[in-house]
Amino acid sequence: GEFTHYVEVTGSVLSKKNVNISAETAGRILEVPAIEGMRVSKGQILATIDAESIQRNIEEMENNLALARTVFEKQERLWNQKIGTEIQYLEAKNRKEGLEKSLASMKTQLSKTEVRAPFNGTVETVRVRLGELVQPGMTMFQFVGESDLFIEADISESYVGVLSKGDSVEVSFPSINRSLKTKVSAIGSIINP
Q1: Which of 139, 147, 124, 133 is nearest to 35 (CA)?
Q2: What is the pLDDT of residues 25-36, one digit of tens each?
Q3: Cα 99 from Cα 66, distance rounded (Å)
Q4: pTM
C-alpha cells in the first residue's frame, strides 16, 4: 500500500497585506473611530486630522482664482482685439493656471486629512489618540487585510532539500477545529543561524 510520511511543524497565519498606515499631512487628531480588533471595509475612515488651516487656504485661493479668471478673460478679449501686449495676456494666463494647479493640490491635501482603510481588513493596533499632533510619515495604525493570507513555518535544516514547491500539505487549525489540504507555494533559501 501507499505510505505517506508527514513532518509536523507549527506555523503562523500571516497576511501579505499587513501594513502600517501613516499620516500624509500634519495636524491634530480630531476623531479616531477605529479601535483595535475592528473589522473595516475599504475606504472606511479610521481617523480624521484637523483641516481648518487647509480649508482657509482653499477659500483664499478660490477668491484669488476668481479674480485671476476675470483678469485673464478681460486680457484675452483685449488680446483678440489686438489691444494690449502679449506679455500681459501670457502673465494673466500663467497666474490663472498656476492658481488652478495650486487649488487642485490643496484639495488633494484636504482629502488626506481623512485617513482611510486601503482595503478590507482588521485594525490590529491604534497608535494615535484624540488631540495628538501627527506629522507626515508618522505611523497611526497597523492594519491587516483579510485576503492574501498564507502560512509560514520554520522547518529543521535536516529537511532542506526534501521539501519542494508543490508538495502536499495538510493544515490543521485546532482552535477552530478545522483542517484543509493545500500545497507548498514557496521555500526560502535562507537558513536561520
Answers
A1: 124
A2: 888 999 999 999
A3: 10
A4: 0.62
